[in-house]
Amino acid sequence: MGFVYAVRHYPRLNRGYKLERTKECRPPPALFNDNVPSWHSDRRVITLSSFILGSLYSCLATVSDTSAKDPSTDQSGPLIRELLGKSTNARFEIKKADIVPDDQSAIRDWVEQASQSNEIDWILTTGGTGFGIRDCTPEAISPLIERPAPGLIHLILTQSIQRTAFAALSRPVAGVTGRTLVLTLPGSPKAVRENLSPEVMKVVQHGLSLLQGGDGREVHQKLGLLDRSQAPISARQDRRGGKQSPSPSPTHVVHRPDEPVHVRHRENEPIKPATPTLSETHDHHASHHHNRESGGHDHVSPVPRTEQRHLSHDPTAPVTSRHRLSPYPMISFEDAVNIVLQECQPLDEVEMKVDCKLAGHVLAEDVFACQNVPNTFTTNVDGYALRSDQGPGTYRVVTPATHPLTQKLPPGTIMRVNTGAPIPFGTNAVIMVEDTQLESTKTGENGQDVDEETVKTLASVEPGENVRKPGSDVQTGERVCEKGDIIDSIGGEIGTLTFVGQNEVKVIRKPVVALLSTGNELIDVQATQASGTPAESSEQWTGIYDTNRPSLRAALECLGYEVIDLGIAPDTVDAHLKPLKEGLEKADLIISTGGTSMGATDLLKPLIERNLNGKIHFGRVAIKPGKPTTFATVPGSTSSQDNASHNKYIFALPGNPASALVMFWMFVVPALRKLGGYPLDRCCLPKARVVLRDDMPLDPRPEFHRAIVKCTPSGLEAFSTGGQRSSRVASLAGANAFVALPSKTAEKTKLSRGTHADAVLIGELRSLDKAWTKLVRFKALETGKVHLGQPVDLKLDVGLELLKGSKVIVHEITGASALDPTARVTQKRLTVSKLLSPLTREEIGIVRCLGLNYTDHAAEAKMPLPDRPNLFYKPTSVIIGPNEPIVIPPVAQPAPEVLPDYEVELVIVIGKDAKDVPVEKALDYVLGFTAGNDVSFRKHQLAVTQWGFSKSFDDTTPLGPCIVSASAIDSTKLGVKTILNGQVRQDGTTSNLVFDAAKTVSYLSQGTTLTAGTVIYTGTPKGVGAFANPKIFLKHGDQVHVWVEHIGTLANPVVEEGHVKARL
After folding, report:
1. 453 three-class SS
2. What is the C-alpha to C-alpha distance for residues 1062 and 220, in angstroms, rounded to an integer?
3. Is the peptide bond before 625 cis (omega within 30 degrees of 0)?
4. Above 50 in pLDDT, residue 619?
5. Dihedral of CA 557/563/569/573: which sign?
6. d(Cα 362, Cα 508) in Å, to the nearest integer?
7. Rounded to whole angstroms, what are the CA distances from 1016 to 438, 869, 917, 935?
8. Of the four, 213, 360, 575, 1018, which is 20 to 30 A from 1032 by CA?
9. Burial tier of 1037 (Cβ tally within 10 Å: 0-12, 13-18, 19+)
10. Can the peptide bond before residue 702 be classed as cis, meaning omega within 30 degrees of 0?
11. Which of 415, 425, 420 is nearest to 472 (CA)?
C-alpha cells in the first residue's frame, strides 16, 4: 500500500527514495489537515517506493567520560552501527557520531543541535542511564522531550528484564522532539544488543514512519486491524466479479499547481518533474473508486474545490487550535539569504536628474561623454597666460573681463587666469603666480589700489607648460559610467556625470519601504496612549515603547530609502489587514516587527497566506537572534509599462528590538539592494576577518554577535558590546559589525579572546580608542562585575571621593587587564561601586621593594646613603586593595611591642618584560605608577639583618587606588604623604629619592628579567612611626591613608586578627 505526501512543506519527505512512474491518486483523509496542501485531481505527483522501507538518518552519541578521553574504549557505539546496518526493513545512515563526556550540558547541547538540524530521524545515545554517580543522560535529555514514549520504554525494559533482573536499574528515556525520535540505551554492549532486538526495531521503524507523515495503514493491515471498507483496493475484488486490481505504486507526492516538483535523491541527483494525465493516475483513497475504462465502480470520492495549502493556523479559530510546534521547517541562514536574493528582482527603470538624490541608485544605462573635457585649452594653475617665447620681463596685465579670449593679446601683454579657466587665443603656456612679482598697480578714485597694472615674470616657460589640452581628461564618445554602476554617496559618480555635462540618467528605481509594528502592548513614544484598549483584547496591557519603527526608520533613511510609516497595529485581524493592504498599495516592501512566533495573537503568517494570497518562502531560520524571521511575497498589480506583474515583498521580523535590527541588516538590506539593481556580489554586506578582543560564548544555533570593529596597528579587532539578549537593543548602540559565531559543540562552548573570526560590517570602521592615562579596577554598580575604567574627570582623587561617599563615573576600558597593551578607553560610562587593587595578585607575580631609598629617611635613621639599591622581596599574598583591612596577625601582637609601622611609597608597575635595560630606556618598560603602603613590623625587622619575614605577613601591603601611565606623570617630582587618623605623619617628595624610577628599573633588570606586572615599592620618606617621639604604631581601629600626588588617596582600616569578621 502506498501513501501520499505533500513535498512542498515537508522537505524531509522527499529524500532517499526511489522514484517510480507517476499515477493520479487521492490522499487518505487522515493525512491532510489544515497544515497540508489539499488534494487536486490535476496535481503533478511523483510515486516513491515504500515509505516505511525508505532510508533513515540517524545520530549516535556515546556518553562516557572514559571513552571521551580514549575513543578506543567505546564498544557500544560500533555495535549500534553494526546492528543498524543489519536492519532488513529500512536502511539507516548514521549522519553524525560523537563521544560525549558525562556532563548534562554537553549531552543536552549535542542532542539539541542534532534535533534542530531538521535532517535527523532518530537520535540514539548509549551510556549514562544507570545509577552511577556520573550517570546523567536521562536528566540531560528529558527536558528536551516534547512527546514522551512510555510504551517504547516499557517494551525495552520488559525484554531486558526477562534476561536479567539488573535491567530494572536502567533509566531509559524515549520520546519525540520536533519530528525526531530520541532513544537512550545503556552503555553495556550486551544491553545494547538486547534493547535493539528485532521486535524493538520493528516498533521503532513504524514510529519513524509515522513521524515522517505515514498513517500506519500497511502495518495495521498486516495485523488485521482494518475492516473491509478500509482495506486498500488491491485487497478487494471488483463488485462486478472482475479480477483484483493490480497493486498501485506505494507512495505518491502531491505538488501545488504553481510550482515545479523538486524531489531529489539523497545523493542530490536531480529529478525531472512529472506531469501525469488523468488516464495515467490511480486513486487509493479510503473511499475508493476504480477507473471506468477497466470496469470499475461508477462513483468517485468527493474532491475539495479549493486548495487548503496553508501551513499557518486559522487566525479566526480559538486559541486552543494554534500550533504547538511550528509547521515551518527550520532552514539555514545561507539558504534563507539565497531564497531572498532569488525571489527579489530589480524594479523598473526611471529617469532622474543628476543631483544629490541620485546617491544609492544603480545606473540602468551606459553614459558616454558628449564633448571633450576640457573642450578647449585651459590652465591647471593660477598664473598668467602668455606665449612661451616671451622671456622674463615686465608686462601689462589684462583679464578675461578686459580682453576677449578669442583675440590675440597685444604685444607686451599677459592675461591673468585662474586654475581651470581657458587661455586666450595665441597663447601656449602659463607661468605660475609664484614665478612673478608685482611691479605697479591701478588706483581707484580715492587713490586705493584696485588691480594689477604690470607684473614682472621671473622665469621662462616651455610651450604647453601648465596647459591642459582639449579632451585630455575625457574625449567625446568615451564611456564614463557603465550600466550597473552603483552611484555611491561619496560623490565620485555624481561628480563624473556632472563633469561630462550629463544632467539626467536612467537608473533602477529604489524600493519604497513601509514600516509596521504589531502588538497591543506597544506605545508610540511620541503618543500619549497605547495603540489598543482593554476592550480589544483580554491580554492587552501598556508600558512598552515601540523601539523598532524609530530605529528601523533611522537606518532606512540614512541608507537613502523612502519610508512609509504604517504605525502600530493592535493584535486583531482587521487592525493588521488595513495597514498591510495600505503598505502593499503604496510600497514595494513591507517590514513588520512582532507577531511572527508562536503566540496566541501572532497573526502575520496566517494573514499573509490566507488574506493577502501571499506565499511564505520561509518562516524559521536557524540563527540567533531572529529564529522566527519570515519572508513572503504577495502578487502585485500589473505594470502599465511592460504589462508584467511585480511581486510585493514582506519581511516579518521578530519583535525583540535587537533581533529586528540584526535581521534587518542580514536579510532586508540585501533584498533592498537586489530590488534596486545591485550586482549579486554587492547585495550582502561585506565581511572581514577580525581578532576577538573578548570571549564570546556560543549557542546551539549560529549567532551574529553584536560588536565594535576597530582598526589597530595589527589589523581589525572586534570588541563585544556586552549582553546579547535579543530584547537588549543597547547591544547595538555603537555596534558596527556582527561577528559570525559557529554553533556550540561539546568540545567548543566559546570563541576565546585572540581567536580569528568573520565579521559582517554594517557601519564605518573605527580607529582604535585612545590609550588610558589613569586606570582603576572596580566593580560596577550597573553590572556587579569587575571592569577597568578611566575617571571621566582625570583630576579626580578617586580614593578620596569614594571615602566621602561621592559618585564616581568612569569610561570603561577594554580588555581584562591593565597589562593588556591594546586596552583602550571607550565612551561607555559606568559607576564605581567598589574600588579594587589595580592589579590582581596573579598579575603581579613578584613584589620587589627598596629600603633606605630617601635621603631624608636615611638622615632620620642616622644611616649612610646606600651606593646601590637595597632590595628585598614580598610574596603576593601581602597585597590588598583600597578600603581592605590591614590585618595584624597574632605573631605581630600586641602592637605596642611589635610596632606595626606605616610607609607611604611610590610604586613602579612594569608593563613589559625587562632585562639588562639601560637607564635611558628604562621608563619605556614602565606601565605606570601607583601608590603603596609598605606596612612594617619593626620588632621583627630589627631582630635580624634580612627584612623579608617582618614585611611579608598576609594582607598587610595596600596597593592603589589607580595606575597613572608613565607618559602622564613625572615620577621625580611627586608629593607623598601618610595621614593616620586625620593627622599628617609623613610629608615628603620623590625628588629626595636616592635611586629614581629609571635607575631602579635599570639596576634591578641586570641579569634578571622583570616580568610584566612586577611592582616595585621604591621606599619611604622621613616621618615613620619608629623614629617619632614618642613612637607611633598602628593599632586596631586606626584609619591610615597614603597619598601620592596625581595618583590619589589609598585608604585602609587597621584590624587585629581575631577582630576580623569579613574583608570590606
Report:
1. strand
2. 73
3. yes
4. yes
5. negative
6. 6
7. 69, 12, 16, 15
8. 1018
9. exposed
10. no
11. 420
State the cell numbers at 510: 529604489
Distance, in Å, from the CA atom of 988 to the CA atom of 1044, rounded to the nearest integer, reads 10
Identify whether the C-beta of residue 947 lies closer than 8 Å to the C-beta of residue 851: yes
Indicate yes or no: pTM above 0.70: no
Residue tagged 632620620 (cell numbers): 860
766 alpha carbon, distance to own chain's centre: 17
Q: Please state whether beta strands 589-593 and 513-518 pair in parallel, antiparallel, or not at all (unpaired).
A: parallel
Q: List pLDDT tens digits, range 782-832.
A: 999 999 999 999 999 999 999 999 999 999 998 889 998 878 898 899 999
Query: Helices 198-211 & 150-161, crossing angle to 10 degrees?
Result: 170
852-873 b/e (C-beta count within 10 Å ≥ 16 → b): bbbeebbeeeeeeeeeebeebe
| Unique residue bearing C-alpha cell 533584498 | 671
- Amino acid 974 reads L
139-148, 773-782, 932-941, range with greatest mean pLDDT: 773-782
C-beta of residue 596 within 8 angstroms of C-beta of residue 629: yes
Where are the strands (E) in 580-684, listed by range? 589-593, 615-618, 620-621, 630-634, 648-653
- Determine contact, residues 423/415, Cβ cutoff 8 Å: yes
Q: How many CB atoms lie within 10 A of CB 466?
A: 20
Among 970, 964, 973, smallest CA distance to 928 is for 964
Please give the full DSSP string across 958-986, using - where no structure is assigned. Answer: EEEEEEEEGGG--TTS-EEEEEETTEEEE
Strands 879-880 and 957-965: parallel
| Residue 413, H or E segment | strand 413-417
DSSP, collapsed to helix, strand or coil, labels residue 77 as helix
DSSP-assigned states of every residue in 826-858: EEEEEEEEEEE-SS-HHHH--EEEEES-BHHHH
Specify the DSSP element, H or E, that contains 158: helix 150-161
Which is nearest to 835 in space by CA: 858, 856, 817, 810? 810
What's the gap between Cα 994 and its chain centre?
54
Amino acid type, 735: A
- The 3-class secondary structure across 497-532, one letter per residue, is HHHCCCCEEEEECCCCEEEEEECCCEECCCCCCECC
Instruction: Output the nine-digit C-alpha cell for 896.
Output: 605596642
The pLDDT confidence band at residue 490, using thresholds 50, 70 and 90, is: confident
What integer is the mean pLDDT of 502-521? 94
- Residue pLDDT, tens place only, 908-958: 999 999 999 999 999 999 999 999 999 999 888 877 777 778 888 999 999
- As to burial, measured by CB atoms within 10 angstroms (0-12 exposed, 13-18 middle, 19+ buried), residue 158 is exposed
- Give per-residue burial for 995-1033: e unless 16+ CB within 10 Å, then b: bbbbebbbbbbeeeebebbbbbbbbbbbbbbbeeeeebb
What 3 state SS string does 766-817 have? Answer: EECCCCCCEEEEEEECCCCCEEEEEECCCCCCHHHHHHCCCCCEEEEECCCC
**Which stretches does DSSP call E strand in 713-785?**
715-720, 737-741, 750-751, 756-761, 766-767, 774-780
Distance (Å, whole) CA 720 – CA 709: 9
596 contacts 605 by C-beta, under 8 angstroms: yes
C-alpha cell at 878: 601581602
Report which secondary-structure segment, H or E, holds 56: strand 55-63
Using left for φ > 0, alpha for ψ between -120 and 50, and beta otherwise, residue 770 falls in beta
Grid coordinates of 252: 505518491
